[in-house]
Design the sequence.
DNA sequence: TGAATAGTTGCAAACATTATCAAGTCTTGC
DNA sequence: GCAAGACTTGATAATGTTTGCAACTATTCA
């Protein structure tokens, strides 16, 4: 039952392919956060946040621990930070390369 | 104008979230390939390959150039390689951390 | 105990992505 | 010109993902 590595990579990237999940990982790679803290920082419904956290948990990218009334999340693999930085590098590269012409990236919210 | 960076990142990762597209990028990050060469190396229908290439083109991750009878693809941003390597690092981290329990991820193939 | 806060789960509708087949363009070589 | 090879495009059914609401569990605190 072994999955080829390129497929595992695809799964990993798919897991990262959601704005809320990126935000979560960015925040968690700074420091651990309780769910309600994330909720204050990310504009999303509680249940939706919970579901995105579940996705990240399933992929073992984050872990959770109940501490009294709150549940604290942490990134389980520190290298996640590298991945996010690499992504930023690529985006800079692309943007630099094409100036500002028509992008497929749909403009919506701010921040 | 600007799309929030975290959203652009999510788009980027989403683009990478498909096994065929990962394969394509892995192959192209070694050297340029004509479509029919990719076709020989990846088990996929021509029309499907074409569609995946279109996705990568739209995101500006690859560029294509017609050379006589063939169309040659190249990665447009060399840093893509870093991203793929970072992904491999994370997968190793996860796999190492959890041994072989879940069996959702097991490395077999190369790269 | 009961109210309030903190999170999670289930589910159905809305939405996006993928695979496949048929049809079309472009280029080479005869 | 025209057949063959190399690719792309369009349409569509099948599948997968996301969202939002309601309901539910767990913990704290008064």
Sequence:
């Amino acid at each position: 039952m072994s999955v080829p590595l390129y497929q595992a990579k695809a799964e990993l990237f798919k897991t990262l392919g959601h704005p809320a999940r990126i935000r979560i990982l960015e925040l968690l790679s700074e420091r651990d956060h309780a769910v309600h803290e994330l909720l204050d920082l990310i504009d999303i419904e509680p249940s939706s946040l919970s579901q995105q956290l579940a996705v990240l948990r399933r992929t073992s990218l984050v872990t959770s621990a109940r501490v009294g009334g709150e549940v604290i999340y942490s990134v389980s693999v520190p290298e996640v930070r590298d991945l996010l930085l690499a992504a930023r590098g690529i985006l800079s590269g692309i943007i630099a390369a094409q100036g500002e012409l028509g992008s497929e990236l749909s403009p919506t919210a701010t921040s």
